[in-house]
Structure formats: C-alpha cells, structure tokens
Q: What sequence folds into this?
C-alpha cells in the first residue's frame, strides 16, 4: 500500500475538498492533506490527534510509518525547523504524515457531528453549512439537570476536566468541537435558543456573554472534545484499508 491509498481512504470518509470549501466560504485557514511523504510502502498507520513527540515514539514502537493527525502537523508556512521538531523526527525515521483538519471537523460523521451524538443530540441546525455536513450545531436533548448532563460527558468522553458555569436544566444544546467559541458561535447559540453551550478553550468575554444571557457553559478540554470523534474516524479508516495495521494513540495527559 502507498501513502496515496491512505489519503484516498481518508478522502472517502472526510473529503479534503471540504477543507478548501470551508476556507473559501467562511474565510478560514487550513493545511489539510499530505504533509510529509517519505516515499515508502506503508507498514502501518498511527492515528493521533496531534503530531507530538509521544506520537512519534508510539509510531516507532508499533512499526507504523504513517502518522495520521487531525491537527495539521504544519499549519502555517515555516521559515525554520529545529532538529528535534516532530516533523524532522518523522522525516529522519521515514514516517510520512497526513493531516485532516477542517474537512474532518465538518464531514458527515466527522468530529463535530460525533460530539453532538456523544452529547445525546440527533437532528440539528448547522451554523456553517457546506455541500456536505458543516460545523456548529444546535439540537434538543433529553431534559436533565446540568449536573447529570456533565456527569454523562465525563463518562462518555472519558474526561474529568470539565468546567461548568450555570445551573439551568439542559434541554437544548449548542456544541462546537475544539476551540469553537467566538462571537459568531455565541450569537448563533443564543439566537437559536440554546440553554447550554459545549465547547473548549473559551475566552472570558464569551463565557461572560453567555452567562449574562442565562446560558449554561460547559467547557471540555480541546483534546477530549475532538478525540471522541477522531477515534471513531480511525475505526472507519481501519475498515477502509484492511490488511494494513491501523493503531490509535491517545494522550491521556490532555483528556
């Protein structure tokens, strides 16, 4: 199997054109695709949310010479690299790198949709719609206390690091995977009648605006909000490239 075969399998699950469409439509930046091609036949794939030193170590340990990440291994053009940069470590070890970022966030069955499903939502309104899928969702859930809702997050997403503001019962949720809170998403959540917002990396003025509007705020770690869907993507990728080992690395320190 060649690296392009892994790319094509991922493209069938989360089309890379969605990244380009997202950037062109909503004025975002991304760098999804083949980041590093060492030109070797694929011996195995390690799926890791980030290209970290621990991920490189794990790839070497399990004999994978491709690392598939969600967060782009190179996001903006770089002017220099140090010897211990994970990208250079991969190059020296013959480990190729593919990253799927906004396309995997937005694809049907992608990370943002999986966050909604994990929180108990089903049908939804989408904020940033694309030709397929989109990003940012508002939906109804079974009515429950905020404490019960947060307890379900801890169990389902395997995380204890959840910060909570508010006390209202939970009926209608807005969720945005990763660092999804900004002025536009807050306005979308309030405008669509959400009583609870779930995301990560929230800035103070956004939390304050939601609190002022009487909306619960539930902040997971960035990692936990996305790794849930990323692991499911890895399982689907494994089915697409049967015969080639696909491993998953989760950095428990960041959950």
A:
């Amino acid at each position: 199997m060649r690296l392009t075969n892994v790319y094509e399998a991922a493209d069938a699950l989360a089309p890379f054109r969605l990244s380009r469409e997202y950037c062109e439509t909503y004025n975002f930046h991304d760098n999804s695709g083949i980041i590093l091609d060492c030109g070797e036949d694929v011996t195995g794939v390690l799926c890791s949310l980030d290209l970290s030193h621990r991920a490189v170590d794990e790839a070497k340990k399990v004999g994978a010479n491709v690392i598939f990440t969600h967060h782009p291994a190179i996001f903006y053009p770089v002017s220099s690299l140090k010897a211990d940069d994970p990208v250079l470590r991969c190059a020296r070890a013959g480990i190729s790198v593919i990253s799927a970022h906004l396309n995997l966030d937005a694809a049907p069955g992608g990370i943002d949709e999986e966050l909604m499903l994990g929180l108990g939502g089903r049908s939804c309104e989408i904020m940033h719609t694309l030709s397929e899928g989109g990003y940012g969702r508002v939906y109804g859930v079974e009515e429950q206390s905020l404490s019960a809702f947060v307890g379900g997050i801890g169990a389902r997403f395997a995380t204890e690091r959840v910060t909570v503001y508010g006390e209202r019962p939970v009926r209608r949720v807005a969720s945005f995977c990763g660092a999804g809170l900004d002025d536009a998403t807050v306005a979308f959540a309030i405008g669509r009648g959400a009583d609870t917002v779930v995301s990560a990396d929230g800035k103070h003025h956004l939390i304050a605006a939601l609190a002022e509007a009487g909306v619960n705020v539930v902040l997971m770690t960035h990692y936990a909000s996305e790794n849930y869907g990323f692991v499911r993507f890895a399982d689907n990728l494994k089915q697409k490239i049967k015969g080639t080992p696909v491993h998953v690395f989760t950095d428990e320190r960041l959950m």
